[in-house]
C-alpha cells in the first residue's frame, strides 16, 4: 500500500482492479475543507487516461510492474512475435495492443516488455530510435531561415516533419514519446 501523498510521475498503482501509471498529480490545499490530491492516470491495460481525485493521506495498492528485455522478431498478420532475451520463449501481441509502438518497431529491435503478475500489458520503447527515410520530396534551396519543414516517411510507415536538408536513405533519430524528428543519426 502507498499513500497518495507519495505520488510520483511514473509510479504504478492499482485502483478499482485496474493497473494505472501516474502521469500528473497535484496536491491541493483549499482554504476551506480537507486537502486532496488531483491526479491524471493512464490505464496500462487499455491505454485510456482518467482523472481521479483522492483524499489526502488515502492509501491505494502499489502495482509491482516487471520489465524484461525482449526482441521483436516479426509480424504475422495482426500478430507481432517477440522473444524473451533470457529464456528464449516466444510470445505474440496484437496490433491493437501495439498501436502507437508499431510506428517505431523494426525487426530484431530490443525493447522491454511490461507485465503485471504474468499478464503482458505492453512494451516500453527506448526514448528515441533510428529510422531510415524511405520517401521524401527533394529539398528546395533558398528560404530556410524560417525553419521550413517537409514531410518524410520512414521505414516503419510513420510520417514525420523534417528540415528541408533531409533526403531519402538518411537515418534519423526519432522521439518515440511524441513521434517527432530529433536529428540525423
UniProtKB/TrEMBL annotation:
One Gene Ontology MF term: translation elongation factor activity
Keywords: Cytoplasm, Elongation factor, Protein biosynthesis
Keyword NAD: no
UniProt domain Elongation factor P C-terminal: residue ranges: 129-184
Pathway(s) of this molecule: Protein biosynthesis; polypeptide chain elongation
A GO CC annotation given for this chain: cytosol
InterPro entries in alphabetical order: Elong-fact-P_C, NA-bd_OB-fold, Rib_uL2_dom2, Transl_elong_fac_P/YeiP, Transl_elong_KOW-like, Transl_elong_P/YeiP_cen, Transl_elong_P/YeiP_CS, Transl_elongation_fac_P
A single GO BP: peptide biosynthetic process
Cellular localization per UniProt: Cytoplasm
Location, primary (coarse class): cytoplasm
Location of the Translation elongation factor P/YeiP central domain: 67-121
One Pfam family hit: Elong-fact-P_C
SMART domains in the record: EFP, Elong-fact-P_C
Function according to Swiss-Prot or TrEMBL: Involved in peptide bond synthesis. Stimulates efficient translation and peptide-bond synthesis on native or reconstituted 70S ribosomes in vitro. Probably functions indirectly by altering the affinity of the ribosome for aminoacyl-tRNA, thus increasing their reactivity as acceptors for peptidyl transferase.
HAMAP family per UniProt: EF_P
PANTHER family tied to this protein: ELONGATION FACTOR P (PTHR30053), ELONGATION FACTOR P (EF-P) FAMILY PROTEIN (PTHR30053:SF12)
Similarity remark: Belongs to the elongation factor P family.
Protein name as catalogued: Elongation factor P
Origin species: Paenibacillus lemnae
Amino acid at each position: 500500500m502507498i499513500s497518495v501523498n507519495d505520488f510520483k510521475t511514473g509510479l504504478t498503482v492499482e485502483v478499482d482492479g485496474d493497473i494505472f501509471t501516474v502521469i500528473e498529480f497535484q496536491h491541493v490545499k483549499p482554504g476551506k475543507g480537507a486537502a486532496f490530491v488531483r491526479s491524471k492516470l493512464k490505464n496500462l491495460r487499455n491505454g485510456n487516461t482518467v482523472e481521479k481525485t483522492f483524499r489526502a493521506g488515502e492509501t491505494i495498492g502499489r502495482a509491482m510492474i516487471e520489465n524484461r528485455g525482449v526482441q521483436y522478431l516479426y509480424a504475422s498478420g495482426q500478430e507481432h512475435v517477440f522473444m524473451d532475451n533470457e529464456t528464449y520463449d516466444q510470445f505474440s501481441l496484437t496490433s491493437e495492443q501495439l498501436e502507437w509502438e508499431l510506428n517505431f518497431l523494426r525487426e530484431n529491435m530490443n525493447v522491454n516488455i511490461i507485465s503485471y503478475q504474468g499478464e503482458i500489458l505492453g512494451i516500453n520503447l527506448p526514448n528515441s530510435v533510428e529510422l531510415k527515410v524511405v520517401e521524401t520530396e527533394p529539398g528546395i534551396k533558398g528560404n530556410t531561415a524560417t525553419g521550413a519543414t517537409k514531410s518524410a516517411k520512414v521505414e516503419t510507415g510513420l510520417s514525420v516533419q523534417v528540415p528541408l536538408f533531409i533526403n531519402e536513405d538518411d537515418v534519423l533519430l526519432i522521439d518515440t514519446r511524441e513521434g517527432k524528428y530529433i536529428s540525423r543519426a
